[in-house]
Amino acid sequence: MADSLKQKTISALLWNLIDRFGQQVLQFIVVIIVANILVPDDYALVAMLAIFTAIGNLIIESGFGAALIQKKNADDKDFSTVFWFNLMMSIGLYALLMGASPLIVNYFHEPMLTQIGAVVFLGMPINASMLIQNTLLSKQVRFKQLAKVDLLSMIISSAAAIIMAVEGCGVWALAWQPVILAASKSALLWYWSSWRPQWFFSFKIIRELFGYASSLLLSGLVNTCFVNVYSLVIPKLYPKRELGYFTQGNKICDPIVSLIYGSIQNATFPIFSGIQDEHERLIKAYRKSIRFTSFLTFPMMIGAICVAPALFHLLFKAAWWPAIPFFQLLCMGGCFTILTAINNNFIKVSGRSSGILKIEIYKVIFTVIAIALLLHQGVLAMVAGLISVRLIVHLINMIYTQRYTGYRFMAQLKDTLPYLFIALLMGAVVWILGYAINNQVLLLICQIITGVIVYFAIAYTAGSKILKESLELLKRRK
What we know:
Mean pLDDT: 82
Largest sheet: none
Radius of gyration: 22 Å
Low-confidence stretches: none
Number of helices: 20
Shape: globular
Strand content: under 5%
Number of strands: 0
């Protein structure tokens, strides 16, 4: 049984990593090509609508996807009910946002936002149309099929964005890309999935699922506002291009963050949900996943901070170099974002989704304090405040994880801090190379190779269990 769970988890993680890695590589390529054609102001225009799109998509999903995965005996009536609910919600939200376009335009003083919003907001009903197919594949741990869908749709949308940018479409390349991505993914899921909705709807089912999903929805709303609040604040106080720099830094950082926690979170949630009644086994499996997360997170994020100057100077035109410190700060905060997301995953498995909401309330309080204190101290100071809030929230999250799951605070530190220390040592060595090598291509190559060698050498010497298990797994597969 244990070996079966282990193999199932490994397979799920592997396909999630392939899926996420492929998507992030494609996204990274698109960012490089498109950013060297467009200007920071183009990115700022689309970023102004990000909070509305994110909140809309979250309301549409309403936490029902997680609720259906967590529910052991979910049947076709449950899936059909959620499908029709999400579809109607998405159409209503699109109409509401289009009606609110004059208010959005007046707030940002950007008349183009009405036309851009009409395109960008189309992604919401399209995303709603494929939620159940996506949820079913996740619940059935069929991540190989999901990976194929995600990668094919990303290839289509990436090609479209590049062609539009090259043809001089400007900001419309950014506006249409997520819509084309959603449409491609929805079409592929409907084509390859045998599930079709019944003509059935039950408010009773919605109420039952919403009991679990409501806390996830509210906590998700709070987190979405937290993540996107700067897209509301920055353009009101500073030049529009500053939001463009922040957005670009986030576009480069986010693929790394998403690759790690998205792969692990998507793979482990349905599997851990299947053993939620076996507490000791669940704790043991979760501790392994958090150690594996730390093993990947700290070297990748700290390494990204160190190679940032060479990376930007090599890949982007000079107009984007001011985004370097934004990227570095966001990578720093990404460490805490990843670990918090994985802990939230564990709390969700325990059925205590209300705990996540409580954590998000703390996040709101500290965010408001940080913005109030740093409002007029410059954009970088505000972003640094955002990173500080992420650290504080992660510490609070660890306390709640102990309370709800029994995974003790000190055990969490024991499982994560060794990898942080090793990554910091690696980062020091990599950073020093920046003062010794002037050629940017040679510097980037040397920094990456040196970082990998130093990190694994120290981890191996220190007797890392995760590294040892990974090496043994590779030997067995050979």
